[in-house]
Specification:
Elements lengths: L1 H18 L2 E9 L6 H16 L11 E9 L4 H14 L4 E3 L4 H14 L3 E3 L14 E3 L4 H22 L7 E7 L3 H15 L5 E6 L7 H9 L2 E5 L4 H13 L5 E4 L18 E6 L8 H14 L5 H20 L4 H9 L2 E4 L2 E5 L5 E2 L3 E6 L2 E4 L3
Parallel strand pairs: 1-2, 1-3, 3-4, 4-5, 6-7, 6-8, 8-9, 9-10
Antiparallel strand pairs: 10-14, 11-12, 12-13, 14-15
Helix pairs in contact: 2-10, 3-4, 5-6, 10-11
Amino acid sequence: MYRIFIIIFLLFNLFACAERPEELKIGLIIDSEATNAEESINAAELAVGQLNQQNLALKNERLLRFKLLIKDSGKQAKNAMQVAQQLIYEDSIHAIIGPNSSRAAIPVSLIAERTRVPMISIGASHHDVTLNKSFVFRVTPTDEQQIKLLAEFVGQKRSQMFEHDTDNSPGNVAVLFDKKNIYSRNMSVLFEKELLARNINLMQYQYLTGETDFSRQISSIISAQIDFILLPNFSDDLRHQVKQLADANVKINILGTDSWDFHTPPSQFSELDMFAFSASHPYKFNDNQKSQIFIQQYQRKYKSDVFLGGAFTSDAVYVLAAAVVKAGSLDSEKIHEQLILTDYNGITGKIKFDLQGNAVRHNQVFSISPNGIEPVDF
């Protein structure tokens, strides 16, 4: 009788183990003070909830469940590294989504690469995030991709200006950037390089973090007859700069990058006799059913609008999930192999990765006005 009991007990445990789901632990690292933090967290939770309803399975036929562990990276690289190490060594995560800034993503990418934990960045555009790394990917456009697109846009618009008004349109190009901010400074360097390749000179105007009076720089911009100015700056600085340009009655084309905050409606442009353009990936304009469904689902659940931060985060989660299912395993090496082969139609369009782990995608310039945001063909 005792032997029968033991056999039944072992069979029961064997059956229970076979039925117990495999759990994929995803570490979401987010700067909670960033403007896109809430939507990124919401989008990740929405995606994980949807995936857990799909009853996905691995090759051993055990069900796959997704668990999201959220950590605040804060503003300091040191804190981002600490939470990444905690997720990897204490929580035993299988992959990292984030961080949402290059300042945090660069040091975290070093840890991910060293520990061979796959990482998909959702907002970091600096080239060092993926440079010389195999386990690190990103779904967002790089700084280089954005700036090249803006340089092409400026080159074509200058040519059109010369054709129509050679006497009054010098086509001068400038940048106003924060000398102390690594993102702003790097964008300026890249813009100069791309323009020089097109035989276009760039006039550079600097300021320091915390400055709010840009009258000195604007006076120089007016004197130099600038037609295009790149403002690769963040929302607080941008508001001051745009308002002061308007107050000075400057007629100019403002150029922007993914640092611009579209959570605030573009009312700051409402009284400006100028044009504003930005280079990023306008997922809302994609002829993409997934994009429209995502927006509807997000708005229905969270009663708020969603922008690129949420879209990129959702795509990152689904790209990871697809890689895990194809790998048929939670083994990081096998997941990594499938991430390299990614060919996924997501909310933000088709996603593939190049040899450096950067998303190969079609980026677009779009205009910003009181009437909204519209794609620009050129």
